[in-house]
Amino acid sequence: MHHPFRSFAPLVLAAAAATAQSAPPPGDPMPGDFTVVDGRVDAGTFAGWRLFQTHCQSCHGIGGVGTAVAPNLVERIRNYTPRGFATKVLSSYRIARLAPDDPPPDSDTERTALLEEVMKRERSARGQPLMPAWDGDGAVTPHVLDLYAYLNARADGGLGPGRPGLLPPARRQP
Fold first, then answer.
1. Which residues contact 88 (CB under 8 A, 6 or more apart)?
2. 106 vs 13, which has greater pLDDT?
3. Cα-flanking dihedrals φ and ψ of residue 165, to 5°?
4. Domain coordinates in residue numbering, the chain
């Protein structure tokens, strides 16, 4: 007896094997997630620490606990999703020009955005520094979720403020 589906079995097995090979290796967290073991972190979280050291620490303080210039990111990170954090870091600190003939905001979202814009201008006029939008920086954009992972690892309490160690790469299962 001939089974028409038997000819598909090799294709199904090949597709399953290809999918298993393309999946991230066990132990490697997804972008924005972190792994901390005895003060050592995964490669993405380590890249986030390095990015923080280079671009953020001078204002947000050692380990992100805040200064008189910038807020405590270890506390604030809990309020963000990965997408919300990336949007905030990459673009929302840019001061947009408000044209005099712009219509008044219609929705609560538009009113909140306008209020935030006015507050930014007030802070800027008083000489308070504003965080730049990092979307044009090639060192920040590809690692913004690594930065998110680092700050979450700090907020979770599993990672101290100093330089973390690096976990060995996860091994792929044969």
1. 80
2. 106
3. -80, 165
4. 34-93+131-163
